[in-house]
Amino acid sequence: MKTKDMVALLAAGVEPVDRHALARRFGWALLAGGLAAAALTLRMFGMRPDLDLMMATPLFWAKVALPFLLAAAALWAAGRLSRPGVTVGRGWLALAAPVAVVWAAAAAVLLSAPAPERMSLLMGSTWRTCPLNITVLSVPAFVAVMWAMKGLAPTRPRVAGAAGGLLASATATVAYCLHCPEMEVPFWAVWYLLGMLIPAALGALLGPRLLRW
Amino acid sequence: MTEGGTAQSAEERLKALFLQGLAGEAAAYHAFLDGLSGHLRAFLRKRLYGLQDDVEDIVQEILIAVHNGRHTYRADQPLTAWVHAIARYKLADFLRGRARHEARNDPLDEQADLFAASDDEAAQARRDVGKLLDELPDRQRLPILHVKLQGLSVAETAQLTGLSESAVKVGVHRGLKALAARIRGKVKV
Predict the structure, then answer these.
(1) Does residue B15 share a domain with residue B34?
(2) Half-sphere exposure of A193 (CA within 13 A, CB side)
(3) Which of A21, B35, B64, B153 lies at a CB distance of 3.0 to 4.6 Å from B71, suitable for a disulfide?
(4) So what's the ipTM on this one?
């Protein structure tokens, strides 16, 4: 086929495009992924019994804020990486800021605690399972986000895959807060982040294959 | 080879046509794709010294990618940057498929030159997209054939094929994606 003919083929009968395709795709992906993560949390791990009491404490919301802010920043980055020729720019700062804050807070807590207690502040009682639980809960959102991004036009598939993976895991971590009993800042600073980084790394690894368009 | 004015004026002209095309104006969209293929051809010919025979195939591949990805364009963004990122991505894909060492260089490093020149002398494409089109399943091939090649309306095509109108639209959309996927597959040697 000659290029001239292909141009005619592509142009024939074009319809107006949906200018909100990106928002719509990410919206569906996060709705499906978030609900699935919440349902899996309740079914596999159960709601923490004192959730209603905890929800009255600022500390609980500080805990939710970490994955929530990371999810928001990852959504921003993943959206921009789904459009050709758009850089993430200050989005990286938005990703780094919550991490910097939680690490600073964790350091402050650890330094002010008596030495013998530091280890338990850091390890809590669920460090063995927490990162793995978050990874498992991320699976539906991971699939949904990759679907959303593949239907757009990511031209840097490795970085885009990482941002998509982080978006999935941060969303799943918000849901995991329904169950997770840990209330110490140093614990989140290590194990929540590790749990969120595993799907992000998988996204970077699989991005070139999953996001090819 | 023709110099299509300055790169800046080409950007403005093509962007205006593209935006009209996104709103559903086929004639403007046709003019946009036509103009774009000239610029892509000149841009690639100048940079892919060892791949002159492949330029037309790559131009076609980028055109399909631009079409399939057109819903990701943001009106406040320079068209040059958007097209350049797609061209670069598709070329990297092509070169990876060929496993040529050019993949490690980056022949498309100068984004500013993308719209600087235009070349309307198309070479013969080596790959026949028409043949690839014939390989698509009927539910995609027939909508593309009737709507895109014969210029029938969606309603007429629906009547002719017995598909619903939305199935015709979906068939065109998915068919062009499948076509791009087949082109990717064929590039691999």
Answers:
(1) yes
(2) 16
(3) A21
(4) 0.90
